[in-house]
# Entry
Amino acid sequence: MYKINENYLKLQGSYLFSNIAKKVAAFKSENPDKEVISLGIGDVTQPLCPAVIEAMHKAVDEMANAETFHGYAPDLGYEFLRSAIRKNDYLARGVDIALDEIFISDGAKSDSGNIGDIFSKDNRIAVCDPVYPVYVDTNVMAGRTGEFVKATESWSNVIYMPCTKETNFAPELPKETPDIIYLCFPNNPTGSTITKDELQKWVDYANQVGAVIIYDAAYEAYISEDNVPHTIYECEGAKTCAIELRSFSKNAGFTGTRLGFTVIPKELESNGTKLNALWARRHGTKFNGAPYIIQRAGEAVYTEAGKVQTKEQVAYYMNNAKTIIEGLKSAGYSVSGGVNAPYVWLETPNGMSSWEFFDYLLANANIVGTPGSGFGPSGEGYFRLTAFGTYENTLKAIERIKNL
Ligand code: MLT
# Structure
């Protein structure tokens, strides 16, 4: 008789954004006349930029001819894309990452879940609280988190690093020693970030205690301040302790076309075993590559036209963030984030819980946001709004909130 992976039975409810989608679908079917605006899941609304579309069309045509057709992609991804990444995301920032340290994938969400494959079940993870739920849920699936403790809404074997107003929504070094540390900067969900000097402390700490940092830099294109690092490898010693996850979803609008990459430096070793070699083995065995057409589209993001056009998209969303922040502040809300990230983090008014505010906002303003408590216990009493809507909807949503 076969057995299932019982760790799945420990998962709490459904995935946060699936849960919200179900609630919204129910509201819409009961209120078909209401115009619901979603500032919930961080899904982009602007079309792929012309440089990307042009590259995709060209690649589609190539697929129509035997001479230019492409079958399986190389294990690590096409060299043209890895070269563009190496040159623009790393060399341009003074960081030398080798081509075979870059692994092309279908996005940072899958990589952040899959990366656990190369680590023993016996590792103890540390996560920010609140946190992007994928880091925790995928570790629950792997059996690394212990039991769920209802009273504290937390997992018994996870080290939580509270990111609160008191800590400027940044984590402090944990008191207990973790093996795997998940960091995401600019941060999802709080929109906060840390300076290069602050990140250096994490790198030094990880090297000192022998921990590995899984560094999710999916929102790096949104950084507007000079002292915020774009890659963890800007920090001294990061190559011996950090894996970096990157995405094309938020900087170039690829949420529906799926493309990302993971960097694993060859210096990163556990007892003489290179993590790069383990991931290469895993990648080659379980993944058959992002499609050629999409990798060509990714390459186009790094052309001169692509850079200008994607920068315009980022500026468009950051203007939304500014609109949200200014509007909420004028309505008396306490807000943070939205300066180096497309997320605005607000305190729920009148002592409402995060889910109470979710229901209130949906029922009274027909706006969908994300309850802070869905990201972890320290998110209770907070709410996340995304800047990824259209400008018109963002403006309309803020007017509705002001009129509540
Ligand atoms: C979010 O809303 O947190 C993100 O869009 C989810 C994701 O990137 O998977």
